[in-house]
Fold this protein.
Amino acid sequence: MASKRGRMSQEVNAGSMADIAFLLLIFWLVTTTIASDKGILNILPPKQDPNVPPPEIPLNERNIFNILVNANDQLLVEGEYLDNTDKLSDDIKAFILNFGAPNAEAMELFNSLPASLKAQSNRDSKSSDHPMQGGAVVSIKTNRGTSYETYLEVLDKVKRAYFEIYAERVGLTAEEYRALTGKTAAEKELQDRGKEGIPMAISIAEPDKIGGN
Amino acid sequence: MSKFKKKNKVTENIPTSALPDIIFMLLFFFMTTTVLRENEMLVEQKIPEATQLQKLEKKTLISYLYVGKPKNTALYGTEPRIQANDVLINTSDIALWVNQEKDKRSETEREMLTISLKADREVKMGPISDIQFELREVDARRVLYASVGRVQN
């Protein structure tokens, strides 16, 4: 008997061990979420000096795109009630690219735009004059009771309108444009060329007291 | 011809017994290097969705503020609270916290400090605007509204 046992193979079949280890590895890779720092970047306005009143910048009503979100998360866009935000970014795009009463500088900008963007310009005298400094401004105003989710959704739509315009100017898709990091000179050049003359003029007003604490 | 015959005799088995060990080493490497979460969450975090996400390149420039309903409602109540590092703070403490965060960084990096605001989707705009007001006061004006991606329609 003893001799028989000695003849039996002492090796454990380790061939499938690698597969098991692979499974573990893949499980680990799939389940761990590496914290990503993605989000919507917003630059807050500088601090107000209480002794110096905020500068009054005269803006015509036609140059402001008003978005109001109330404490029940209902939207009032340019004086009209809106029940969903699907069309919002298209409306904002049309507003920015309106060129209702451009001055000489803005006309130069208009002529530099690609044909696809020029076609979106309505030249409506009741909408924004031009998208340059002191031209089209998108204003978002909320109540203190407005949910953060709705606010972010609206801000997202406004950003989308701008990014689509920038991307179209340089011939990229909006995703590609947003992915530009500005690390290399070529990327920075693309980024600047998209933005040039059309600053992201998003005004976020101080929320009023309704619905909050 | 005899030369070819000789070659055929060479054994073709590659020893695979060390393969599991290599894979295990890989696995342990991943397990030890991935940092799951630096601090324990004291507030609820359901990050809202958005489409127009931008990624920040330099992680060292980011400081996190978590806003949401406390998990331990018996102790902290149900109103949204702010968590910085691993403690709950009040709105008035933000200025102090920002200055501490600025001190941790070099002179040149300070003005590029970005506050990643990880707010729960249930939070109202009231607390958010209070935080933003405090951030403006201490001149930490780059705010990232942390959000997860959603497929654009």
